[in-house]
Amino acid sequence: xxxxxxxxxxxxxxxxxxxxxxxxxxxxxxxxxxxxxxxxxxxxxxxxxxxxxxxxxxxxxxxxxxxxxxxxxxxxxxxxxxxxxxxxxxxxxxxxxxxxxxxxxxxxxxxxxxxxxxxxxxxxxxxxxxxxxxxxxxxxxxxxxxxxxxxxxxxxxxxxxxxxxxxxxxxxxxxxxxxxxxxxxxxxxxxxxxxxxxxxxxxxxxxxxxxxxxxxxxxxxxxxxxxxxxxxxxxxxxxxxxxxxxxxxxxxxxxxxxxxxxxxxxxxxxxxxxxxxxxxxxxxxxxxxxxxxxxxxxxxxxxxxxxxxxxxxxxxxxxxxxxxxxxxxxxxxxxx
Amino acid sequence: xxxxxxxxxxxxxxxxxxxxxxxxxxxxxxxxxxxxxxxxxxxxxxxxxxxxxxxxxxxxxxxxxxxxxxxxxxxxxxxxxxxxxxxxxxxxxxxxxxxxxxxxxxxxxxxxxxxxxxxxxxxxxxxxxxxxxxxxxxxxxxxxxxxxxxxxxxxxxxxxxxxxxxxxxxxxxxxxxxxxxxxxxxxxxxxxxxxxxxxxxxxxxxxxxxxxxxxxxxxxxxxxxxxxxxxxxxxxxxxxxxxxxxxxxxxxxxxxxxxxxxxxxxxxxxxxxxxxxxxxxxxxxxxxxxxxxxxxxxxxxxxxxxxxxxxxxxxxxxxxxxxxxxxxxxxxxxxx
DNA sequence: CTGTTAGCGCCTTCAA
DNA sequence: TTGAAGGCGCTAACAG
Lengths: 336, 336
Fold this sequence. Notes:
The structure is a homodimer. By secondary structure, chain A is an alpha/beta fold. The first copy, chain A, folds into three domains: 4-42, no CATH class; 61-155 and 290-317, Response regulator (Rossmann fold), CATH 3.40.50; 158-288, Response regulator (Rossmann fold), CATH 3.40.50. Chain A has twelve helices and twelve strands. Chain A has helices at residues 4-11, 15-22, 30-43, 49-56, 75-87, 104-110, 126-132, 158-171, 187-202, 219-231, 244-256, 290-305; strands at residues 61-66, 91-96, 116-120, 139-141, 151-156, 177-181, 212-214, 238-241, 266-268, 285-287, 313-316, 319-321. In chain A, the strands form three sheets. Chain A has a six-stranded parallel beta sheet, sandwiched between helices. In chain A, α5 (75-87) links the parallel β1 (61-66) and β2. In chain A, α10 (219-231) packs across α11 (244-256). The longest helix of chain A has 16 residues, at 187-202. β2 of chain A pairs antiparallel with β2 (91-96) of chain B, so a sheet runs across the interface.
């Protein structure tokens, strides 16, 4: 690979001159610039990005850390992140946190290969997050709540969302409502569950532990837990799946058992992923402002990079999306 | 930020010693190593990735270049890429080519920030691709065909896929078959169209230019072109959308006009994206071996990096997936 | 406008 | 086992 040295030599100028010329500085004459450019072209010279980043101690890129690049992550969120990042002339790279401490994500977080990062990856530990955040390296987390001088939190109002979902079910006459949870360590899940509890409570319905089923936020998990529910003697009036993926898995399990949604049972999800609208029946769910969350996250980073002071915590609101998986419950005929 | 110098100073050793200790070399005593590690920890030292990459002139990361990070890209493909990459202990980063020549993708391609790259982004020009590829920097393209010493091609058999789709329609009694194309400059599209033509030809059906509609591979494009088709006087027996996204957009247009699929018209897509199975009716389509394409791509890169010689061209086969959007055409009652 | 020079932070011979 | 020193490729004073 040709270096700037080779270019300078070929063009017959000093290295610095070549550098200036290549960076479009106005310190060199048009003639030299052309000479240098010609030399660069003929050598197929490409600058070494590291060397220049090293020198300037700044990369102009921010990282988006996802738990799995191929996962059903939120394309709107990425869109938001992407839009704001490119609008600011920064580069955006996405990397996965598969592999935990040895993952690419951890590497990027720790080795200052980027100027800032957004984390949406439950498999990055709080510990890694906390010890990576430092002055001059803003970190925004979208999936947890962390108190640190250098970590900024953006959350959607999961509690309220959980409340909304549960209340919608209650208002449709359902009282025996199962909650299919996400993993135990999921902050989001815990808040959604809190909302579920609150709604039950506000409507004078006693919480029954038997209706809390532990899932894992995956489609298979939803399928499995639903099968389990079906295998049990008692069946709820409705199921609140703590995310859409699980609800879709559940839908499949229900269909296989000829249990009709929403005639026999009502179900509701959380997230409003793209698929939700296409499954049959279309899934009622809780919509999160994903685009906003993504763009806000980057926005915070840029403010921080510019040395401004910003809040450490933001909460975005959620919204009920009524589709066709929830229906008014037919009460058993009163005996006359 | 603490540098290795600070660590060395605090630990009371030379810089090189600190470096050895931190890199687990066996050239330092256990005692020194511990001393250095303690110092590093207390300073919250993190090595600067650039500096070390610069020194070793190798990054251990490969880039996956997508036209849009938030786009409906192929999660299975990414899965394949990801699996093989991490299995080889390399890092994977995804970046977008939005912005063309000024995009992050172009930057990564040109500034040797990665050891190899996989391109699946029609908005990266052949020119950029060609001039980025160089010895020691293997490039695999998944969406075009390029002849260069340093570019490797992996294609799915689009022509055969197009043939399969069209033939399936023909075998169901359809003869007036519209083709909704992708963008003009899409290599994939051209091959699919070729397959369409071949099938028509093999079955003695004359190609009619009026049945070729120019789309753009987006859902909106499919919607728009279908509306157009509907607005015209003549309507085809069936439509072959050159990708699923467009077919889904088309489905919507058809539904809005109370044209039933597959009763009034049969349609087929291409790609077998996740949604295809969930739309109503479930979309018949052509499935591509996406996971294989992704894993093969990285595999090729690693072979190249290891100095092995590999073929410049691979073709993976496609397969017809029958679902419910294609139906045998009722012939008009013969007059008796 | 151009050239000289001193590092950015790290790794790695080489000599002690 | 440890330390001194050179340099990866580039940028940015500074001096001419």
